[in-house]
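Workshop exercise sheet. Pairs work together: one partner reads the sequence aloud, the other fills in the structure field after running the prediction. Swap roles for the next sheet.
Pair: D.N. / O.F.
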Amino acid sequence: MYRKPLFILCLLASLTALGAVPGHVRFHDEARDTARITEMLADVKSRRLPNSGDCAVEFGKMLLGTPYVAHTLEGEPEMLTVNLDELDCTTFAETVMALALTIGEGRSSWRDFTYHLERLRYRQGEVNGYPSRLHYICDWAVDNSFMGNFKDVTPQMPHCMYKVKTIDFMSRHADRYPALADSTNLARIKAVEDGYRNCRFPYVKTIDLGKKETVAAMRNGDILAFVGKVDGLDVTHMGILVIDGGEPRVLHASSSEGKVVLTDSSLADFVKRNRAFEGVRFFRLP
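Structure field:
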């Protein structure tokens, strides 16, 4: 029987860990995406910014104007998807975070970026079918905090409150998710939801976001998760915090504006104007 030389086996193992084995990643345009990621990483790395939050903001600004497109992750089989040409609020946040984490490790390869993107997007950092994707932000926060990808700093924020909610929107609206027509996928999603019945999570209410002490506790590049009123969901939108002249603003992929934008208004005013929001959770990169 033919046996692969040891160095080839080691190489394959290394490539798998970096998310670089052919067929493991679904690119929107592989040549353009990999070249652009490499250029972005090299640009920000050369600036020697002081922390991952500042890097996240710079990466986010590089994506300003990118069209908002939903459902870009859907497809069979489930694969790590990289698409810098079309973003929704979650894929925007994850893309920016993965880029910043790559720089935080002193690396500048698109392969390192895909490694971090997979660690952020999938349970325990590994694609294992549709249910392994961290669909709910409460689940995403627990898994990523455990992995050390970021810290939930909401409990340390002034005026932090706690909300209790059962998270089960996907199984109750399975007809909206083609992948849940598969009974195995549906059963696995229900098993995830079982862990989030009467889920208790921290947030800062809308009314407290503009208070001086709350603003003082915010940091450039904090990841924002907007707590919504939809039954069965904890978070309905995401963005990146930008401190501009001492004022916190929101960098996000906006469905209403159809692209990635930086708000003219403050975070507090942005949330007040969106009546579907009740407050914000704050996550901070290492």
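Discussion prompt: Strands lie at 25-27, 80-82, 151-152, 160-165, 199-205, 223-228, 235-244, 247-254, 259-262, 277-284. What would you look at next?
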